[in-house]
UniProtKB/TrEMBL annotation:
PANTHER family: ATP SYNTHASE DELTA/EPSILON CHAIN, ATP SYNTHASE EPSILON CHAIN, CHLOROPLASTIC. The gene is atpE. It is found in: Membrane; Plastid, Chloroplast thylakoid membrane. GO terms for cellular component: chloroplast thylakoid membrane; proton-transporting ATP synthase complex. SUPFAM superfamilies: Epsilon subunit of F1F0-ATP synthase N-terminal domain (SSF51344). The keyword Transport applies. This is ATP synthase epsilon chain, chloroplastic. Residues 3-81 form the ATP synthase F1 complex delta/epsilon subunit N-terminal domain. It is a peripheral membrane protein. The keyword Chloroplast applies. Pfam families: ATP-synt_DE, ATP-synt_DE_N.
Length: 137
């Protein structure tokens, strides 16, 4: 392994271990990070974090935040994060259905913005599960 990755939320350490490579969703698109990546600080969008270990990939749902990369250290600070393996598929699908319904019945700008955000979070959780299942198959 060549990079140390630390994923933190306000309440817990989600990941703190060495990795070969990561792919993360920034506000301006996805970036891949390998050993000796140029130093960078970037805002993170709601999206998927892909983590490559020696011979396999893991997937994590990130709920937006900030990443700092430098000296083969990656620190990711996010509002919330879940490993795909920790997400209950039935609960994630139900949350997605509720988020879609809430968006359809949203009234006013504020409710629409909040409903869109909840929908993006729900879709990201489902996407993390689907991607993990595809990798296993």
């Amino acid at each position: 392994m060549t990079l140390n990755l630390c994923v933190l939320t306000p309440n817990r350490i989600v990941w703190d271990s060495e990795v070969k490579e990561i792919i993360l969703s920034t506000n301006s698109g996805q970036i891949g990070v390998l050993k000796n990546h140029a130093p960078i600080a970037t805002a993170l969008d709601i999206g998927i974090l892909r983590i490559r270990l020696k011979d396999r990939w893991l997937t994590m749902a990130l709920m937006g935040g900030f990443a700092r990369i430098g000296n083969n250290e990656i620190t990711i600070l996010v509002t919330d994060a879940e490993r795909a393996s920790d997400i209950n598929p039935q609960e994630a699908q139900q949350t997605l259905k509720i988020a879609e319904a809430n968006l359809n019945k949203a009234e006013g700008k504020r409710q629409t913005i909040e409903a869109n955000l909840a929908l993006r979070r729900a879709k990201t959780r489902v996407e993390a599960i689907v991607e993990t299942i595809k990798r296993i198959s």
